[in-house]
Amino acid sequence: ADVINFDGHVVLPYRFRNKKMKTLKDVIALKFKTTESEGVILHGEGQQGDYITLELKKAKLVFSLNLGSNQLGPIYGHTSVMTGSLLDDHHWHSVVIERQGRSINLTLDRSMQHFRTNGEFDYLDLDYEITFGGIPFSGKPSSSSRKNFKGCMESINYNGINITDLARRKKLEPSNVGNLSFSCVEPYTVPVFFNATSYLEVPGRLNQDLFSVSFQFRTWNPNGLLLFSHFADNLGNVEIDLTESKVGVHINVTQTKMSQIDISSGQ
């Protein structure tokens, strides 16, 4: 399948021929993989208040749809459904959205949810375009607060139109920020295995005011030392450990009254 790599900046729009799209039925399918927990996968909206959005929030998939609200009356069309978890695992995930009027099937990796939208309208009215990989910047507060998708998508199909094929054949114009490429870049990581006696020692950085460290780990042991470092000039030390399956950070500072800081997190 054609694969598209989104860099977190670029947005891919599919523009409608007649500037408007009014549908009673929609079928949208795609596959994605990412290491990011936030990002807009697809978005479309209309001037009548209709919108459709599929996005990652806290590594869960959130689908939002509004077939129209009546601002003066009691009709409230916003509908939001959440599915899945830990989707930022850099594995391929398959999504299919099938809509017939107010009736929706949302399928994520063979797990299907069926629901009906709020409100009384059956048609989805979109203007100009539907975008993949993010929301085009419109100046609205909602467009800047949501992150663009960073990762790979393949087999994007919108109502029978092969979006990935159109993009590859340069029939679609991506937004002029960022890069769209057609191969999925694998993140380069080298796992290191430790037994109970081995450790990895790296040189410290002199004259640095900032101490910063990040890593991912996996273990069956509830206790163990993850990291230890002395500060220069005998100013103290920092230690990160596992104690009863919780991560603890201990900072000892020798020259201040508040000599020890202990933080615990996780379970």
From TrEMBL:
Keyword check for Glycoprotein: yes
Keyword terms of this UniProt record: Cell adhesion, Glycoprotein, Repeat
Domain Laminin G: 1-184
Entry superkingdom: Eukaryota
Gene3D superfamilies: 2.60.120.200
Protein name: Laminin G domain-containing protein
Family matches, as PANTHER family: CONTACTIN-ASSOCIATED PROTEIN-LIKE 2 (PTHR15036:SF33), PIKACHURIN-LIKE PROTEIN (PTHR15036)
One of the GO biological process terms: cell adhesion
Annotated Pfam families: Laminin_G_2
Species classification: Eukaryota, Metazoa, Chordata, Craniata, Vertebrata
InterPro entries reported for this sequence: ConA-like_dom_sf (IPR013320), Laminin_G (IPR001791), Neurexin-related_CASP (IPR050372)
Keyword Calcium: no
Organism, as annotated: Diceros bicornis minor
